Amino acid sequence: MENSHDLATYRRRSFAPKRWSALRQRFSWVEEMHHTPQDPEHHGEGDVGVHTEMVLNALITLPEFQQLPAQQQEVLWAAALLHDVEKRSTTVQENGRIQSPGHARRGELTARQILWRDIPTPFVLREQIVALVRLHGLPLWLLERPEPERLLLTAAMRIDTRLLALLARADLLGRQSPDQHINAGTHRSVRAVLP
């Protein structure tokens, strides 16, 4: 009987091969990302698929990511792949702006289904991944919310905040935005708030 925490077993079944073109061919939800627009003010790089590929590329170049144990790298990589999966169902255009309200909440549910049905993932790892998907935007707006300490403590009960900070940094680095200087400042805020 397999140990549900066995990394070798998980890696054999995980997101290999990890080439973007292979992921697009294998999973319809990856292909759908390329048909989901984003607001050019914050995502000049284009659609959700282009952004997600850029996030993955940014993530694997971060020195902190490279220093993580292999299992945490797998968890974080999967969360980066899935972090905007439900922009496809939540994207609307209002007042000339493209928005995706609730995409992280819906994405948590979809990620759980994908990691159960399409890519069988051990429960403990699956729940780490879906929590990262749900909370991926928290570091970016944490300091603007009431009771940021409470929000951070609540998040810390679900996930390793170091992984959340890395995901948020990759999310910022994986975009082209006219307000890059603001993104750089937010990047520093992420590092200050989350280890």
UniProtKB/TrEMBL annotation:
MF GO annotations: nucleotide binding
SUPFAM superfamilies assigned to the protein according to its UniProt record, in alphabetical order: HD-domain/PDEase-like
Keyword tRNA processing: no
Coiled-coil stretches: none
Keywords: Nucleotide-binding
UniProt KW Nucleotide-binding keyword: yes
The protein, known as: HD domain-containing protein
Protein's organism: Escherichia coli
Phylogenetic placement of the source organism: Bacteria, Pseudomonadati, Pseudomonadota, Gammaproteobacteria, Enterobacterales
